């Protein structure tokens, strides 16, 4: 949300969003050093929740160095080193979005470092899976890393941006699966509902991409409308867009929804 | 949903997308020079549309995917182009 306008917050509240959950993300350019991440983490844990609160929207976040900046292992070590300064902030739910981008050896090392940090701090984990042609391989590699660390409990990890060719392996391994709704890539609302209808799983959720690229903050409410067009009942829609995410994030005691 | 309901909801949108794909392929044909691996992957994906069994979306995605298992030595750049170059 750091790259969005206040109009988006207003629209989200108007559409019935109860909370916003923002992972640490690539800025669209590489930050020049650890200080840039320090400032970004301050923004995510201090300024942005205040901005969202002006619209009555609770703001939660996840911290990491995004996989797109993980090729530089030395920088990643420095950034991971400052995360403990922020991990106890009231709106931090866990470590994310970690994962892979181009499936390189250095990205794997940084992923393992993040997983270790999450295990040591007993944090929830949000995982980014690679885009397009790299997603299948990246998802397999990510599952290998998570399963090889015996401290990691799958029910406390969500593997995000799944599509038809990766959702099955994620759910079969016991993890949560997230579908990111994007107008141009990843999952469309119609395909996300297809996946829900095919898997109808307790560990599935949807999220709207709200970044600096072409993205639609109201993608989840619009998908709820699409579910209504298909004849899904209100209870099932509520489960998919509200109860399931709340159940996953509620594993962090800091996550509270407005009564 | 019944098949009739699915058609009522999605036929026009899917018809539009199919014509867009046909026009895209015509546009590629009209272009000069050689195509690259992306067009091969696209044609491989299109073959899956004619299949009789469900799971077509998954099969199309697999047609574009890197099937290898080991991490690459180094990431050169950040972007993805949508199809695996095959090396």
Contiguous uncertain segments of 5+ residues of chain A = none
Using the alpha-carbon principal axes, give the shape of chain B: extended
Number of domains of chain B: 2
Domain unit count of chain A = 1
Gross morphology of chain A: globular
Note the main sheet of chain A.
7 strands, parallel
- Considering residues with a beta carbon less than 8 A from a beta carbon on another chain, report the largest interface and each chain's count: A-B, 30 and 29 residues
Q: How does CATH name the architecture of chain A?
A: Alpha-Beta Barrel
Number of strands of chain B: 0
Question: Counting H and I runs of at least 4 residues, what is the number of helices of chain B?
Answer: 3
Residue share in helix of chain B: 55-70%
Strand order of the largest sheet of chain A: 1-2-3-4-5-6-7
What is the CATH H-level superfamily of chain A? Metal-dependent hydrolases
Computed over alpha carbons, the radius of gyration of chain A is 17 Å
| Mean of pLDDT of chain B | 96
Strand content of chain A: 5-15%
Assembly status: heterodimer
Number of helices of chain A: 9
Order of helices and strands of chain B: HHH
Short structural description:
The complex is a heterodimer of chains A (259) and B (87). With 259 residues, chain A is α/β, with parallel strands linked by helices. Chain A is built from nine helices and seven strands.
Provide an overview of this structure.
The complex is a heterodimer of chains A (259) and B (87). Chain A has 259 residues and is of the alpha/beta class. Chain A has one domain (6-249): Metal-dependent hydrolases (TIM Barrel, Alpha-Beta Barrel). Chain A has helices at 6-14, 34-53, 73-82, 105-120, 135-148, 167-172, 189-199, 219-229, 234-249, and strands at residues 20-23, 59-63, 92-99, 124-128, 157-159, 176-181, 204-208. In chain A, strands 1-2-3-4-5-6-7 form a seven-stranded parallel sheet. In chain A, helix 8 packs antiparallel against helix 9 (234-249). The longest helix of chain A has 20 residues, at 34-53. With 87 residues, chain B is an all-alpha fold. Chain B is built from three helices and no strands. The model of chain B has no long low-confidence stretch (mean pLDDT 96). Chain A binds chain B through residues 26, 68, 71, 101-108, 130-137, 140-141, 163-165, 190-191, 194, 229-231, and chain B through 1, 5, 9-10, 55, 57-58, 61-62, 64-69, 71-84.
